[in-house]
Give the backbone structure.
Amino acid sequence: MTSNQSNKPVNVEKGKQGFQPTKRGETTTNTPLPAPADEFRPGDWREQGDFRATLVELGEGLNGEYDENDPTDVELYRIDVQVKGTHPWADLDDDPEDGIWFNTTGETSLCTNFAASSSTEESEAFLAAALAHITRRSDTGDGSAKGALEDIAGWSEAPQSPIEVGATVMWDDTEYKVVPPEIFNPETVTIANEDGVETTVSVDDVSEVCDTCGAIEGTPAYDNHHDSQNCWAETPSRFTGVPLTEREPVCMRCETTFESFEARAAHSCNDY
């Protein structure tokens, strides 16, 4: 994708006279055949609050027009965003679509780095994350529609949960499992207790628990036994395949063997 793609008109139709703007809702020459009702189709709108968004295929690639004969090129999706007329980001100089939906001011459509060959699930996740990002920036007064769209244009996939799904975390002195969020937010994480009850909390309020050694992030045991998120308990080859409960009282950092686990706890390399 090149920088000059951001200024292409919305829903462009490729014809003999080059790229010509068409009205929103009109099909393009590369519109696919209708998909089953439960599958995402380019042009299908998804709504959240005051915003709606869709992904469209306009034959755009990594360096301008998509070149199907270039094995290194990738056809990319373009994202279109509209907003209700009551929102301050609405461009009221444009005619509304369906009576209520206006283009956003500054920028309403940008080519993304998201491949047009992506699956239904990936496309739905991308749109959900995009709408959450736009809504969050709007609600917090952070920037503009143009700024939010420029963020999204750089995505090659839907952003993931800030903490890996399935990880164990401590929150309010209780262990929880990280589960997929209903709406993506890089500042929060969705967690579930042993009964499956879900809660969404600030990512700053939880501490990850190492699945290998059980140390809690932020404690001396974690700080002394981890480097770049790698647990030193995995390092010594003699411990490969041996459960933690069956291992010798050995410092995982310097591999010094002690007479007891109490003696190891007093060792300066750790604080178990």
Q: What stands out?
A: The first strand starts at residue 12 and ends at 15.
